[in-house]
Design a protein that fits this description.
Length: 225
């Protein structure tokens, strides 16, 4: 599970990220509404933890803007405001769940997992498309320019993750966790798998879709113009 945490209290945000990491999940942080909306709009997250009271752009308005853009990513709203009216306002803005501070990290985790499971029932089998590359998670078939691509189970997992995240840059650690969890091999095996994926989706074609962002990770999509 890849989670975006939009929370201006750095201790709370860091605590959530650390706890989720211990449970085998990964998280990215944003500490104000403007940067949070930018990251959320880029996509690639399974769920969003959204603080209601944020600098620069308040959480309710951020959620409204995100839904207006067409984002279906599940949103769990955090707040110290726990009245019925406050909760109704959050749900009307597009939040999927509501957790009042202070909260237990274990409860936050299970609520996020439940949101992602429900969303998965709706979106896990969606046909994926990035530029002229398509992938069907049900048939496991990848096609580019009417050519069927040969992928093994590992490169298929990497491709699906990168396509769902596109155009976000996916950190190396996120891909390593996808393949091996917390037991990452000592050798740079990821680079070998990424080379195989690049050979499959890019080598036969004129334009390249898989880009290495040195020192960070990988991005799948057309060249930035």
């Amino acid at each position: 599970m890849q989670v975006l945490i939009i929370e201006d209290d750095r201790d709370i945000a860091g605590g959530i990220r650390e706890y989720l990491a211990e449970q085998g999940h990964t998280a990215e942080l944003a500490h104000d509404g403007v940067s949070g909306l930018r990251k959320a709009s880029a996509g690639g997250f399974d769920a969003i933890v959204l603080d209601r009271m944020l600098p620069k752009l308040e959480g309710i308005e951020l959620c409204r803007k995100l839904r207006a853009e067409g984002s279906a990513t599940p949103v769990l709203m955090l707040t110290a405001l726990g009245t019925v009216d406050d909760k109704v306002e959050g749900f009307e803005a597009g939040a999927d769940d509501y957790l009042v501070k202070p909260f237990a990290l274990a409860e936050l985790k299970v609520r996020l997992e439940a949101l992602v499971r429900r969303a998965g029932g709706e979106h896990a089998h969606q046909h994926l498309q990035v530029a002229d590359l398509s992938y069907d998670p049900q048939t496991l078939q990848a096609i580019r320019q009417n050519t069927a691509l040969t992928l093994n189970p590992t490169t298929r997992r990497l491709l699906e993750h990168l396509m769902r995240a596109s155009p976000r840059v996916v950190p190396r650690g996120e891909l390593e966790h996808l393949l091996w969890g917390n037991k990452v091999p000592n050798d740079d095996i990821l680079r070998i798998h990424m080379h195989a994926l690049r050979s499959a989706i890019d080598k036969p074609f004129e334009s390249k879709l898989l880009h290495t962002i040195h020192g960070v990770g990988y991005r799948l999509g057309p060249d930035a113009t």
